Amino acid sequence: MTDVHIRHRVLGMALARCRRDRGLTTRQAAPRLGMSSAAVNRSENAKRPFGPVEVGAALAVYQPPPDERARVLALAQGQPATGWWQVPGAFGPHDEAVAVLEASARSVVEFSATALPLVAQTPHYTRALCWHRRHEEHAALTRAGRRREILLDPTQPDRTLILDEAVLRRPVGGPTAMAQQLRHLVALVRGRPVAVRVVPFREGGYRSPGDCAVYRITDAPTVVHLHSDAASGLLDDPADTRVVEDTLHGLLSIAASPDDSVDLLTRFAADHERTAGLYP
Questions:
Q1: Phi-psi region of 174 (alpha: psi -120 to 50; beta: other; left: phi over 0)
Q2: How far apart are CA 248 and CA 183, in angstroms?
Q3: Which of 17, 86, 110, 202 lies at 20 to 30 Å from 56 by C-alpha?
Q4: Burial class (CB in 10 A: 0-12, 13-18, 19+), 20
Q5: Which of helix, strand or coil describes residue 221?
Q6: Is the pLDDT of residue 82 over 70?
Q7: Which helix (H) or strand (E) holds 108?
Q8: Is it the case that residue 21 has pLDDT exceeding 70?
Q9: Which of 60, 55, 105, 102 minimizes the C-alpha distance to 78?
């Protein structure tokens, strides 16, 4: 258990990243921040929260680029008591937090029963998901594009995508677009530290945690992101994250192997292509 709220934990990670980008050690940064090096280390490692004055001093010393500065300020605002939930649908600060978690995690496990996670979506797939709410299309494309950027980072975490077979069968955007989406997913698996595990229909029903992502961070508690179109929540209480991790472990025990899952992706891509009339 930690008495530092998840928002402050992510803020500490973000400021540590700004410090490193500036080329400073905690010992070098401490006198410029008016803090001891021990206090800087404790704040960055979720042992104590950064205070508002300390956040201001850190931004002045580290001079991060505008987008990173905006991210830090968004994280520094507000102090909810337990958990960190946002409703309905406006996930801006959570998007910033997820970007920090992506940069800090050593591994990520994501589960979806209805649609591909943002990080794996092609733009056509993202647009197709918004067919009935076109006013949200630009925001959705922006969010998906930012998530995909992590796949270009050479230090990206190992990632496992657990998908229900229904995600692969549903022709989002039509059979041709869906075939292209599945081919894209196969390319991700072959070119990056990404694994796909498909839960096949033959396994019947199963216990679902809902759409979620688990971020495992070295020397820090695991963070779970639960999300839907209606709400988004970040959890780091071990009592809460353990339930989600145990559920995902159960799904992995019934999911097809990585190689068999790629075979399923390839087979369903061919099925969609055949439906589209691309070949007999």
A1: left
A2: 25
A3: 86
A4: middle
A5: strand
A6: no
A7: strand 107-112
A8: yes
A9: 55
With beta carbons less than 8 A apart as the criterion, state whether 117 and 215 touch. Answer: no
CA distance 203 to 68: 44
Which 3 state secondary structure label does DSSP give 224? strand
Strand partners, 214: 109, 224
Please give the share of the chain, as a percent, with pLDDT higher than 90.
Answer: 59
Buried b (16+ CB within 10 A) or exposed e, 214-236: bbbbeebbbbbbbbeeeebbbbb
Q: What is the pLDDT of residues 187-222, one digit of tens each?
A: 999 988 999 999 999 999 999 999 999 999 988 889
pLDDT (tens digit per residue) in 140-174? 888 888 888 888 788 889 999 999 999 999 999 99
- Rounded to two decimals, what is the model's pTM? 0.76
**C-alpha to C-alpha distance for 275 and 280, rounded to whole angstroms:** 9
CA distance linking residue 87 with residue 106, whole number of Å: 28
Phi, psi of 217 (to 5 degrees): -120, 130
Start-end of H helices in 155-237: 165-169, 175-191
Cα dihedral: 78, 80, 83, 88 (round 10): -70
Q: Are 205 and 188 in contact (CB under 8 A)?
A: no
Q: Residue 120: exposed, middle, or buried by beta-carbon count in 10 A (0-12, 13-18, 19+)?
A: buried
